[in-house]
Amino acid sequence: MNSARAFCPANHRSVTKTTDVEEEQRAYAGALFEAYGGLLQRFLRRRMRDTEDVADMVQDVFVRLVRSGDLDRITHPKAFLFQTATNLLRDEQRGRKLRNDGMQADALRALHAPEAPTPERVLEARQRLQAFERALAELPPRCREVFMLARFEGLTHPQIAARLGISISGVEKHMIKAIAHFGEAMTRAS
Known about the structure:
elongated, mainly alpha, 2 domains, Arc Repressor Mutant, subunit A
């Protein structure tokens, strides 16, 4: 029963005269699936990288068949199904290529280093770093130690309090003092 004639809508209609058009098309699509579903799966399995997606692709072929409208117009259903499968494969490959091209472009952009900073930007960054170092040196020793443990070593306030033997409130006060001092120092430097 693999001949297109055996599944011609006109032949099928004679069997289902009492059903409405939509039910008739569903039954016809089901008959086509019975006849060609296995062939389509083998066809797609040979051509697809990810064979787990074969069943989904076969389903998409039959969804397109049903959505194509009037099934009476399809005179060669086997050819229609395989051409639809081929088109879906092309669409999937195009989409994969676009995704791969996008990922490759992102990777190439990541590999290229940004442009070298201008001498003015280098000078400005050095001046900001020097201002920060001066401000850090100006802090009282305990305040500086609390700030460095929090910002450079990533310790939490309770961890700093435990390490230095001071209260969490004391840590918070030192941090507030240090941040305010840096704010003032950086404002002066700019």
